[in-house]
Design brief:
17% of the residues are buried. The protein has 2 domains: 1-36; 51-174, Immunoglobulin-like (Sandwich), CATH 2.60.40. It is built from 1 helix and 10 strands. Strands 3, 5, 6, 7, 9 and 10 form a 6-stranded mixed sheet that branches. A hairpin with a 2-residue loop joins strand 1 and strand 2 (55-59). By secondary structure, the chain is an alpha+beta fold. The protein is globular, with a radius of gyration of 23 Å. Residues 55-161 form the Bacterial Ig-like domain. It holds the Pfam family Big_14. It comes from Domibacillus enclensis. Keywords: Signal.
Length: 176
Amino acid sequence: MKKTYGFIFCFTAIVLFLAACQSNEQKVTEATNAIDEGLNEKAMEQKLPESKEDIAFEVEIKQHTDSPSVINILMQNNSNNFVIYDRQFSIEKNVEGIWYFVPFEDDLKVFQDDAPAVSAQETISEKIDLTQLKDNLSPGNYRVTRTFSKVISSNESEAETQYKDFKLAAPFKVTN
């Protein structure tokens, strides 16, 4: 009887050890694939919606046969208030279920000091220049991410106006 319990214990220990090794091996493979593509930094937010708070964010052409130099994005405001958006954006690539930042040329940050708005019930289009990226986009699933701010309460002075910030993602695909 003791031999049976000993056998079951050893067998269970071996199975658990092998399962742990496989899980670790999968994480190493995912990280290696991302590094091979020059993607070193995981995106902070892995799950982002395409729309929220009556704002829709999308890429006009969702599939490209080669690495595009420019993509057009659409921002649609279906609310009754204007929405401010940040001109800064990021491009992220999905590698085996994990989103990674695609680096800009020499860590260039796309930054402008204005905060444009999308008026109520308006849709606007904007071109995103991808030549600022360090490399061309290889085949895979990508997304453009951007932060939006919606007025939630407004007073006489702009200093007392309160905003709700949220980030949206517009997915697109690059194929051969």
